[in-house]
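Q: Joint fold for the lines below.
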Amino acid sequence: MSAATTTAATSANCGNCSAATGGAHFCPACGKIQPLPRGTDYFAFFGLPQKLTLDLEQLEQKFHSLSWKLHPDHFARASEDERQLSLDRSSQLNDAYRTLRDPVARVEYLLGLAGMRKEGQKKQQAPPELLEEVFELNESLDELRETRASGGTAATMSGLRAKLETAQHKFEASLAAVDLELARVSTEWDAALDSSADDAAKKKLMEKMNEVLNRRSYIRNMVNGVRQELAGA
Amino acid sequence: MAYSDKVVDHYEHPRNVGSLPKDDPNVGTGLVGAPECGDVMRLQMKINPETQVIEEAKFKTFGCGSAIASSSLATEWVKGKTVSEALAISNTDIVRELSLPPVKIHCSVLAEDAIKAAIEDWKKKKEVSAPAANATAGN
Ligand code: FES
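A: Joint structure:
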């Protein structure tokens, strides 16, 4: 699939009056609700280019106005087909909104469109230092659990806790740093779209985003793991 | 989700959990992770430099049931095999043996990667410990 640009599917025609719809939710000529053209992505659903910086307020407004217009209640007396279309569109609207509203899910989705987040595919390994860190942290978490289960002394427990608290601060800082990095590459991506950069340049940025996302998932895991454990300790 | 009997068996009775001395020149260590979920797996094997046979294998996995089962199975499979036989093990063999569903494929990929990484590490160690021999052998 070609790297992202604006992909509103434009070849669709209205099933009712056969006017060209340009992939719109409603036929511009007769106003009937339209089936989803194949390949409509979440960005196109909102009439947006595939950019990663979004005005969240505007997105929310569009979401509310669309969910009102597409709501199945408005189609109670419409044909069976139209009712089904309103259901389909409404559920896609919710998925699209949930995905685009979150900056990380948004990047993941964009990369998914380019086929870069496939399950089970060989992936570049995270930096070895990061893997070491993850491994060590997991061992400390294990240690804490075992100590707690075997009724360790208060002194041992508080020693372990202190160690984990230090780790927590560190990983939360890493998470913030990786999020900043993701925001930075996202901005670069938008700039590349604006300047109609070539596919090779876009691909490179996507690979960078992919790499950042991968690192992020380990860090987020560590943050969650430590939080959970500290909450229970 | 429903795990297959074999996964449950490995999960409840993991084989070869533990560690081998990292600094032993005959021990290769593979530490790999799955970015999908942030899980990590460490697989170590002790390899006889004369015969290239894997004499011992240990693992420690922080991850889901399928990842634990995959690595447990991997240690069972590599033991007694030669390095090149072990390198031929692919994640699809593991998927088949454990009947893993599609969403759990990455867990088996992790085990395959770990085998390869451990052997890679062992090879690297050998080169470092015998650079002179390699240099002359290359002539
Ligand atoms: S879900 Fe992470 S390794 Fe299986």
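Q: Anything notable?
A: The first helix of chain A runs from residue 42 to 45. The CA atoms of residues 155 and 161 of chain A lie 10 Å apart.
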